[in-house]
Design goal:
The structure holds two protein chains of two kinds. Chain A has 17 helices and 20 strands. Chain A is of the alpha/beta class. Chain A folds into three domains: 191 residues, P-loop containing nucleotide triphosphate hydrolases (Rossmann fold, 3-Layer(aba) Sandwich); 170 residues, 3-Layer(aba) Sandwich (Rossmann fold), CATH 3.40.50.300; 71 residues, no CATH class. Chain A starts with 9 loop residues before the first strand and ends in an 8-residue tail after the last helix. The C terminus of chain A is likely disordered. Chain B has one domain: ABC transporter involved in vitamin B12 uptake, BtuC (Orthogonal Bundle). Chain B contains 17 helices and two strands. A two-stranded antiparallel sheet of chain B has the order 1-2. The longest helix of chain B is centred in the last third of the chain and has 27 residues. Chain B is globular, with a radius of gyration of 22 Å. The N terminus of chain B is likely disordered. The chains are: A alpha/beta, B mainly alpha. Chains A and B meet through helix 10, helix 11, helix 13 and helix 15 of A and helix 1, helix 2, helix 12 and helix 13 of B.
Chain lengths: 505, 349
Amino acid sequence: MVDDESRPVVEATGVAKRFGPTVALADGNLTVLPGETHALVGRNGAGKSTLVGVLTGLLKPDAGEVRFAGRPAPPLGDRVAWRQHVACVYQKPSVVGELSVAENLFLDRQPRGRFGLLSWSRLRRAATDLLEAWSVPVDPATPAKELTVEQRQLVEIAGALSHGARFVILDEPTAQLEARAIARLFDRLADLQRQGVTFLFISHHLPEIYEICQRVTVFRDARHIVTAPVAELDHAKLVEAMIGDARGLVQVGHDRPPVPDEAEPVLTLDAVGVPGFTGPVDLTVGRGEIVGVAGSAASGKRELAEAVVGLRPRTGQVRVAGSTVKPASVPAALRAGIGYLPADRNADGFVPGLSVAENATMTVADRLGPAGMVLPKRRDARGRKAIADLDVHTAGPHQPVGELSGGNAQKVVMARALARDPRVLVLVHPTVGVDVRSKESLLGVVDAETRGGRGALLVSDELEDLRVCDRVVVMVAGRVAAEHRRGWDEAELVAEIEGIGEKHV
Amino acid sequence: MSETLAVGGPEAPPRPPTPTGRPINRLRLARLRDLALVPPIIALLIYGYTLKPDVFLTKSYLVDTVLKYQTELALVVLAEALVLIVGKFDLSLESIVGIAPAVAVFLVVGQTSMLGAPWPTWTVLPVALVFGALIGVFNGLLVVRFKLSAFIVTLAMLIALRGLQLAIVGGATISNLANRIPTIDNLGSLRILTVPLSIWIVVLAFAVGVVVLGYTRFGRSLYAVGGNPDAARAAGIRVERVIWVTFVVAGALAALAGLMLSARLGSVAANQGSGMIFTVFAAAVIGGISLDGGKGSLVGALTGVVLLGLIQNVLTLAQVKPDQIQAVNGLVILVALVLARMTSGKAQD
């Protein structure tokens, strides 16, 4: 590879791709130099995923060219050749959960022993060697489904490198990781970079780009906009390139009126405990108040929220506007006036095959007609209102939600949460995996909706989400460890989330 | 904030919907998928006509020789379609087709004094329906409460019920029912406006099914549960109850189908319904019901039934030898599946 030293690892020029009437990519250009970590950013639907599909040989471009180290890309069917050039670690696992790590690493190329039969001992040794070579601290005998997200990503990277590729695409690798795991991942990436691995790093978290990337490429509206060293493109310019107008992003919630101490409570948690996850937690959300709940993945904050909305059994008492809510029943929580936005929209946020209108009205199916009837006219009217209110970019109320981009699908889930006109919203990771503009718009909805007298419980570890909150409580190991009014100190909050700043309580 | 200021307050007037062309196209497309089987049905009608031009396209032939023999299948397909849409399987339906009428008839005319038999003849219909429903309750119990795989639970039920039926009927056939039980007589021979009662029942059942699936909370929740049970649960749908009710309704529908079959034949054979489930799945899948749940329509399923019925009839007319007809039938079903897959695009994943 010495003679390729100066040549770009990958060079895509004028790549175009259409899906039926939709132009997914009009002018895709990307040059990644050897040894760098290159960021690829853009809003949902900017063409990033399509470009990745083309770069990995899974999509055939309608026009344009891809070159690896100066040579044309192999033919589309030749997967082995592609894998020697490039690999992609997706957000969704691409390992077989029931098989061991070792088998996953050598799937369909297992070392053989006597009589040409598969040799388990060689397989184990090869896997151990491979994992050690790239310092991945995982036992090759572990079933893949037991890996953490972090481990799974490292195993997939090691697998990619074992095929000979020294160029790895990471598609939002940090989306499901908590702060400490992200730090560890970045350390590992830096190590690998020193060993000569080139990365294309896709993320919606702009600070991460400044942390680990040397150059950044911005896509917008299916086109390449700019490529520059990160040092030459400050945060404002980067956002401008992504959203395409000079109007920067608004800090949502900076002008929220203060919530009076005597604000009447809309949601009261009285010694609410989730067996196996949290101890008894007391918490109150007042009228017009957004209460943020921060904490690591092990803090039990998500489980607490799921218990409040009736998805998990719990102890203690939950009251909405004074009246007690029956535990472990979602319908009861809905009737009491709790609107819920789940943590992972793909898992339990929406039904992909059903339409926007149907998903948005799923919580109010009883109000769409008499005697259990659902009148399509009424459903569509409500669907159209939700589309307008939440600015969902969709072909109409009949489009299946599975066809929408992440940000727009999340707006539909938000519409579902708001549909019953709830007294209090319980939102878990409301902006995970959505682009900057959708994030602004979703948080704007939470802000606007709570000004009218609703309350909101916003469970998140995104600082941007928490900044909208009037009050933030930090959970550590199943109990509330700290509480802050608006204007908290970022470093202090992060330290508390990590469980090292409890002295501030 | 200009983008978000307009958002949501209850007093904000809804913006007028922006007119777009695509939703209408989409709706048309959805309808088209339902009707994907109409061209092959027409082709078969034309082919049948060329085989027997004097009678094939007459009403009496189509009703009494083609459709009448598909009524039981149609009802079981309806039942299976509901279960498939909610994301489960029910193989035991074919055994219910046999055992529900067997039990009901046995209690009326059987050589037994169990449970105070003989029961009055009018009990045949309610007993069959309740028995079918009870099997649905039991299937639901195992699938919902004990979280067992629906496929394997209902497979075991299929075998167990088949055995139970053998024990009841005793390897023989309970026959000459029409003379002994008025309900059976009516089901088998009553005509309304010259069309057999069984066809009216199927039409009514599908009409009710279409309305329930398309225009009621319960019907829509079948699609939500089949499409993504976790999302349905988070939206307040009682997922377990929906699945359970679907099993019960499917059981009752299969029992009704069984009674209609007994009525048409005038008897309950020991192997009544045996092997039917394969045709049921074939018809449902050809008709666009997804085995993965959450997808498909009853109109589509009905066209699947009609298509299979026509195929069988046309094969007989084309003088395929009886010992070959099953092999040819299987092949034709495969071809129909491939064709349906191609004409309806991605809809049949």
